[in-house]
């Protein structure tokens, strides 16, 4: 049964309290300390402007170990064609704002409500949240953002304004993380699009075991930069 949280603490109930769907707790706040504590325990916020803050730990988790990335043939051709230029952490605010306003099939409105957007911008300022930007003709064509702690990257959302832009951003992210020794990308929920890239669903216990190993790696927070000459193929 979900537990009601009090503001001003970073405590969460044991994950066995989560509902069948994965709802663990309600309320609390979006302070930097609480968000980091949540991610370290495999918990993430997901709600909308009609509900209080909801904290989730689903019984199944979608993961993509960077070394297991699969690049579809058609996307590999687009990568070689160089249709987009890729940057890291140069337009975080623009990426998360675009993700918040993106229209998604079967969804009304957005879960990236203003207070959540502000909380992730704060994590970015502290060196924990990162963005990948895909540019075309000098304009932001797509991108994604997420949170990095230790050797784990927790993907949050992505958007595209031009075809393939977000997919190419994902490929660059996975290859960049692989080059840095990150063993885990948490994709949260299974989608057919992620499965095409080699992601798969694992049980909560396996996810937590992988997460513990990733968190033990000594990667410090800070701004990311794409290495000169780096290419994902």
Structural key phrases:
233 residues, 11 strands, globular, single chain, 7-stranded mixed sheet, 4-stranded mixed sheet
What does this structure look like?
The chain has 233 residues and is of the alpha+beta class. It contains 7 helices and 11 strands. It has helices at 32-40, 73-81, 92-101, 114-125, 165-180, 192-196, 204-215, and strands spanning 3-5, 23-27, 44-45, 54-56, 60-63, 85-88, 129-136, 139-149, 152-160, 184-188, 200-203. A 7-stranded mixed beta sheet has the order 6-7-8-9-10-5-11, sandwiched between helices. Strand 7 and strand 8 (139-149) form a beta hairpin. Helix 3 runs antiparallel to helix 4 (114-125). It starts with a strand and ends in an 18-residue tail after the last helix.
Task: Summarize this structure briefly.
This protein is an alpha+beta fold and 233 residues long. It is 31% helix and 25% strand. The chain contains seven helices and eleven strands.
Strand-helix topology:
Blueprint: E1 3-5, E2 23-27, H1 32-40, E3 44-45, E4 54-56, E5 60-63, H2 73-81, E6 85-88, H3 92-101, H4 114-125, E7 129-136, E8 139-149, E9 152-160, H5 165-180, E10 184-188, H6 192-196, E11 200-203, H7 204-215
Parallel strand pairs: 1-2, 9-10
Antiparallel strand pairs: 2-4, 3-4, 5-10, 5-11, 6-7, 7-8, 8-9
Listing every helix as H and every strand as E from the N terminus to the C terminus, the arrangement reads EEHEEEHEHHEEEHEHEH
Side-by-side strand order of the widest sheet: 6-7-8-9-10-5-11
Quote the average pLDDT. Answer: 94
Alpha-beta classification: alpha+beta
DSSP helix count?
Answer: 7
């Amino acid at each position: 049964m979900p537990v009601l949280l009090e503001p001003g603490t970073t405590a969460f109930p044991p994950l066995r309290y989560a509902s069948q769907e994965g709802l663990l707790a309600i309320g609390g706040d979006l302070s930097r300390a609480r968000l980091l504590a949540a991610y370290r325990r495999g918990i993430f916020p997901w709600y909308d402007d009609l509900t209080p803050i909801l904290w989730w730990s689903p019984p199944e988790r979608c993961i993509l170990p960077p070394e297991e990335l699969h690049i579809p043939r058609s996307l590999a051709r687009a990568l070689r064609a160089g249709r987009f230029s890729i940057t890291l952490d140069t337009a975080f605010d623009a990426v998360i704002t675009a993700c918040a306003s993106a229209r998604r099939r079967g969804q009304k409105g957005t879960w990236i409500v203003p207070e959540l957007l502000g909380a992730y911008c704060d994590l970015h300022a502290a060196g924990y949240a990162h963005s990948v930007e895909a540019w075309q003709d000098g304009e932001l064509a797509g991108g994604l953002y997420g949170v990095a702690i230790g050797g784990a990257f927790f993907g949050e959302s992505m958007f595209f304004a031009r075809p393939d832009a977000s997919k190419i951003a994902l490929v660059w992210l996975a290859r960049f993380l692989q080059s840095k020794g990150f063993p885990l990308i948490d994709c949260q929920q299974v989608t057919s699009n992620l499965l095409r890239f080699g992601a798969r669903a694992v049980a909560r216990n396996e996810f937590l075991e992988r997460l513990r190993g990733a968190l033990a790696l000594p990667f410090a927070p800070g701004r990311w930069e794409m290495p000169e000459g780096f290419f994902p193929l």
